[in-house]
Amino acid sequence: MRSTPTVPFGRFDTSWPAASRPDLLAEPVATALGRWADAGLAESVLVVDTDPEVADTAAFSAAYDVPLDVSANCVVIAAKRGGAVTHAACVALATTRVDVNSAVRKRLGARKASFAPMDTAVAETGMEYGGITPVGLPEGWPLLVDEAVAAAPYVLIGSGKRRSKLILPGELLTRLPNAEVVAGLAC
């Protein structure tokens, strides 16, 4: 019998190496983790099966006893310059807010930046709303990671589905395609 990996925080019935449970992951996430397996990084990523009714951060934190300072949110941004719209993702701890109007807008060289509409974020990422994650983002998207997330020993992020979450070292997010650690991304 295989033992359940130990999670560094929270109260979960069981956890698994994420790559071993593609049924708990959105397809782009499973594909990205497959590439991590080739690089020897996938064993650092766990997945936990959870109740999709409490997928939103505050409810999830209360239901599973996960501190907000280890929960990271991934938000999709629509940055506009002229007639062009560029999508990007930003990751920040749940205890902070992404500085869209200043830090993100300036970093992306946009005239205007805002949160992308939900239907756009879901369609572009291939992930469920409430489960969007930086793992498996569309090719070419900038990924801005707040320095506090990158420095965290472990963070909890979406899995691409509302029903599960990933737990991984924050530093692994900096190894994702187009990832950049940004000081002052969130406040």
UniProtKB/TrEMBL annotation:
Domain YbaK/aminoacyl-tRNA synthetase-associated: 52-175
Origin organism lineage: Bacteria, Bacillati, Actinomycetota, Actinomycetes, Kitasatosporales
Originating species: Streptomyces roseoverticillatus
Record's protein name: YbaK/EbsC family protein
